[in-house]
Each structure stands twice: as C-alpha cells, then as structure tokens.
C-alpha cells in the first residue's frame, strides 16, 4: 500500500470521509479496484474503522479515477490517497487514518499533542 | 523569436493567474455551502452540456493528428472520457448526466432538452472551432492546459462542498471525483506536447491566445452559474 497524505484544509465542518473504490469492470483486461481485491477489503475495513470508534464516514464509489494504481481509497477533505491496498493492509491503513484524524484535533492517536 | 522552453512554460502558467476555475467566487460558494441548491443544479445541468461534447472534440483532434505517439495519448484520454474502461465507471458525459439528474430530480430527457444559453453555445462552438481549425498541438493545449490543468482543484472544491453542505454521497458525485487526480495525466501530456512542439513565435502566440480565450469562456461559465438557477424537484433529490 502506498499512502499519499495531505494536510486537512482549514475550517471544514463535516465528518471526514474515507471512500473505497469497489468498481468491477466487465472487461477483465481493464483495471478495476473490485477485480483487484477491494471487494474483499470492504467489510474488514469498515469493521476495523468501527471497532476503533473513529469519527469518520465510510463510503464506497465506483471509480476514483486512478484505476491503474488500485485498489484505491481516498480520505476527504484532505484529499489523501491510499493506493495498491491489499487485504493485509487494512490494519495499517486504519492506523494511518486514525493518525490523520488525530491531526484535526492537534493530537496524536495516543492523546499527546501533535506539535 | 520563439521563447525558450522555460520562459514559454512560465508565460503559459502566468497567463492562467487569476483565471483558474478556483479563482471564481462561485466555486468558493459551493465549497462553503452558500450557493443555493438551485445554483448547484444549474451547474450540474450546464456542466453536462459542456462535458457531452468532449469526446467529439477529442476525436476531431485525434483524426487530424499525424504523429502516432501523440495520437496514442489522445486515444488514452478519449478512452477516459468516452468509455467505462478507465477513469470512471461510465463515460464522463454519463457521469455528468448522473449528477445532474440526481441533484435536480430532473429526468435525463429534461436535462438533455435544457435550453442552452448563448454563452454555453459559444463555449462549445469555440471548442469545436479550435479542434477543427487550429494546429493539433494548439488544440491539445487548449484542452489540457487552458482548462484541465486547473480542473482538479475545481473538482475538489465542488466535491468537498457537495459532501459537506448538500448531503451528496461520493457515489452520486463521481463526475467530479474522477477528475481530482485523473486529469493530472491529461494535463501533463498536454504541457509536454505543447512545450516539445510549440517552437515558433506563431505557435506560441496561438497557444497563449487560446489560454486567454478559453479562460474567458470559463469565466462566462462561472459567472453564469452565480446568476443561474434551475428548479429542484423533491425535498432531497440525493
């Protein structure tokens, strides 16, 4: 998995969203996140986000536009990206998301100040 | 005398200053939630009518292109725009139609039958005129530099605003989300092709003229969205 992390924008009010692409293209020769394993990632990822009690909205979409790099997920509104996710990456992906969410409050996941 | 590569690049980028999509108040209004649902609906319908001609504009440029390598890059972009095979679960016109219908509650027939204002017809006519009449490299730059190079920020602002203030799920706004990162390839291709091939003063002036002209049309688009409104059907269409 590759994570491309960006700073949260100033002044957003809504819950952050993690969106996983679950597209399954009919054409096997064209890349799509669903065919590359995102369908198997979906349930454990959602469960892991819930079990950590993270304040985040989990959504799915049929395309995020980076098909050659999939399976992909996007964290909004920071516009951070997770590409080439595998089932084995779910725990570390949630770790990163938790860490990113903590930055909104200016805290590390363990409650210590981020800066 | 033609500008050296770096100076020409700087001239193009400078030419966009203050005229990028994200510079317009309407984009900030959508991001902050101060745009009305009727204005956002207008954006959806107008953007569909802009997007639906893109495949024909690109295929016009493709058919005129003598360079096999460039033609292949145009084909890649055309596949992104007009099919469900890459960058989008549908062609981008179909995604734009999905957003327009889901946000407004209109039928596809109603969106299709929308009476395009004069400024929108002129924008579409301009796109076809450049594709048909200008050198291929300029036509590519018109699309990839004058418009797409600053589209990712536009789409990010709209998408974040729709999610935060208008209750639009990501699956209902794929039309905007696929362009946030997906257009960067198109833009990089266009910059490379233009810089590699615009080596005469005439070509460079044409390219700069196109940046002025296409951003002028986009300015009309964004100002019209500020004044525009379409009726929204239903309490919460999405």
Verbal overview:
- The complex is a heterodimer of chains A (115) and B (238).
- Chain A is 29% helix and 18% strand.
- Chain A contains two helices and five strands.
- Chain A has helices at 34-51, 90-104; strands at 2-4, 17-21, 57-61, 73-76, 80-83.
- The two termini of chain A are 26 Å apart.
- Chain B has one domain (5-227): Up-down Bundle (Heme Oxygenase, Chain A), CATH 1.20.910.10.
- In chain B, helix 4 packs antiparallel against helix 5.
- Chain B is globular and about 60 Å long.
- The model of chain B has no long low-confidence stretch (mean pLDDT 95).
- At the A-B interface, strand 3 of A face helix 10 and helix 11 of B.
Low-pLDDT sequence parts of chain B:
none
Overall pLDDT level of chain A: 92
How far apart are the first and last residues' alpha carbons of chain B, in Å?
55 Å
Mean pLDDT of chain B: 95
Strand content of chain A: 15-25%
Strand order of the largest sheet of chain A: 1-5-4-2-3
Topology pattern of chain B, helix = H, strand = E: HHHHHHHHHHHH
Number of helices of chain A: 2
Specify the CATH class of chain B: Mainly Alpha
CATH superfamily of chain B: Heme oxygenase-like
Radius of gyration of chain A, in Å, reads 14 Å
CATH fold-level name of chain B: Heme Oxygenase, Chain A
| Overall spatial form of chain A | globular
**Which range does the strand content of chain B fall in?**
under 5%
* Category from helices, strands and their pairing of chain A: alpha+beta
Give the oligomeric state of the chains in this entry, treating copies of one chain as homo and distinct chains as hetero: heterodimer
Helix content of chain B: over 70%
Task: Explain briefly what this protein structure is.
Chain A has 115 residues and is of the alpha+beta class. Chain A is built from 2 helices and 5 strands, in the order E-E-H-E-E-E-H. Chain A has a domain at 17-69 and 81-104.
């Amino acid at each position: 998995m590759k994570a491309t992390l960006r700073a949260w924008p100033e002044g957003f009010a809504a819950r952050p969203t993690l969106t996983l692409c679950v597209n399954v293209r009919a054409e096997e020769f064209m890349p799509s996140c669903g065919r590359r394993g995102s369908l198997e990632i979906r349930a454990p990822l959602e469960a892991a986000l819930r079990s950590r009690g993270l304040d985040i909205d989990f959504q799915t979409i049929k395309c995020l536009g980076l098909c050659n790099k999939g399976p992909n997920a996007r964290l909004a509104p920071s516009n951070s990206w997770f590409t080439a996710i595998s089932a084995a990456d779910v725990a570390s992906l949630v770790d990163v998301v938790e860490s990113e969410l903590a930055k909104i409050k200016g805290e590390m996941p363990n409650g210590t100040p981020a800066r | 005398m033609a500008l050296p590569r770096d100076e020409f690049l700087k001239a193009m980028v400078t030419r966009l200053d203050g005229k990028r999509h994200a510079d317009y108040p309407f984009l900030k209004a959508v991001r902050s939630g101060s745009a009305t649902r009727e204005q956002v609906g207008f954006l959806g319908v107008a953007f569909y009518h802009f997007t639906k001609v893109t495949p024909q504009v690109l295929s016009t440029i493709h058919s005129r292109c003598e360079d096999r390598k460039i033609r292949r890059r145009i084909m890649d972009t055309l596949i992104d725009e007009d099919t469900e095979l890459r960058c989008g679960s549908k062609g981008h016109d179909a995604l734009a139609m999905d957003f327009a219908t889901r946000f407004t509650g209109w039928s596809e027939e109603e969106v299709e039958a929308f009476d395009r204002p004069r400024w929108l017809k002129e924008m579409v006519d301009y796109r076809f005129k450049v594709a048909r009449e200008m050198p291929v490299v300029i036509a590519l730059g018109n699309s990839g530099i004058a418009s797409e190079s600053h589209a990712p920020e536009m789409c990010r602002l709209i998408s974040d605003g729709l999610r935060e203030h208008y209750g639009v799920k990501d699956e209902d706004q794929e039309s905007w989300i696929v362009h946030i990162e997906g257009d960067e390839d198109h833009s990089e291709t266009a910059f490379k092709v233009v810089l590699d091939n615009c080596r005469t003063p005439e070509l460079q002036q044409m390219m700069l003229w196109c940046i002025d002209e296409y951003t002028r049309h986009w300015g009309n688009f964004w100002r019209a969205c500020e004044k525009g409104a379409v009726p929204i059907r239903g309490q919460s269409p999405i």
